[in-house]
Amino acid sequence: MARISSYPRDLDVVDQDSWIGTSVPGLQTRNFTAEAVAKYLNIKGKISIAAQMVFRFKEANAAAGDFTGPSDNATLASITTMQLSIEDKSGQNVVAFMEYLVGNNILINAQNEISTFGHYAIDSYTDNGAFYTLNLTNKKGVGTLLDGVSYDFSVFALSSQGAPTFVFTQGAAATTWSIQHNLGKFPSVSVINNNNVVINGEVIYIDNNNVQLNFSAGFSGKAYLN
Fold this sequence. Notes:
By secondary structure, the protein is mostly beta strands. 7% of the residues lie in helices and 47% in strands. The strands form 3 sheets. The chain has a 7-stranded mixed β-barrel. Strands 10, 11, 12 and 13 form a 4-stranded antiparallel sheet that branches. Strand 12 and strand 13 form a beta hairpin.
């Protein structure tokens, strides 16, 4: 057999390039493609990336490293709760880190498919045994969950999120404006009428995602919440 150093070097690695190795169990010689190795490293979370965890979605029979709760093919825009294993696919315990993230934002996206994602604010993370309950405020979602697919969970914040502003337009004159802003907090509120005159009224915080504005006379205009 020729020395390894005598073979030409290939500096352009493609998916179907392969290496010879030993398969376990059985200790049999096998070809391993670059694509298969990359998939293994991604799904098993073997490459450490700060503030990122890998979980597999399982509608039923969830095990360590999985998350469950939503139904298969549930839209990522509809998810507000899930049960998350205390360990991700790499085997690291995520409890302390997830508890620390309560009140912050997280991005959940399908591996190798960044345009299938959900952007959420974490409302709470509570003990439920081997799986913790993750309650979320949905900010944006594109695509659906697929059973058996692995997803990256990453701490996430848009550059504009330092002081996000929700703009609400009241088209018809009314004395009561009901606003769902999904900011995940009790925001400050400024109101103007259609002549850009500031109008003061009563602000009632229903919860950290909904507010009601009451005025002495009906009018239309805009409310700015941040």
